[in-house]
UniProtKB/TrEMBL annotation:
The protein's name: DUF736 domain-containing protein
InterPro entries: DUF736
């Protein structure tokens, strides 16, 4: 399910995430370089009212089927668990990106 639409903005991305609980403009910007294993490559910021509040992080990923994408984790006190979604290039427009969410499969069913 597509829960957001984004465009390139400088060295990052800007767009809107929209679900039943969330409706916010966010920016995805490069994180400061870090040598730690599994450190995020991206920061997710709330840009409404110019707050710049960090609400998540992103990691570079690659798959044979989807190619390169960014795996995002967005957190909010209103959410029981962090929202995990993937930012992928649109297949129709190379300047557009979609934030895709899929309901996680419970471990006993996986």
């Amino acid at each position: 399910m597509i829960i957001g639409s984004f465009q390139s903005a400088g060295d990052g991305y800007a767009g809107q995430i929209r679900t039943l609980l969330l409706d916010a403009m966010i920016a995805i910007v490069p994180a400061k370089p870090n040598d730690a294993e599994n450190a995020p490559a991206w920061r997710v910021l709330l840009v409404e009212a110019d707050t710049g509040v960090e609400i998540g992080a992103g990691w570079e990923r690659r798959s044979e089927r989807a190619g390169s994408y960014i795996a995002l984790q967005i957190d909010d006190p209103a959410l029981a668990v962090p929202l995990r979604a993937n930012l992928l290039s649109s297949t129709q427009n190379e300047d557009e990106y979609h934030l895709l969410w899929t309901r996680p499969v419970p471990r006993e069913q996986a």
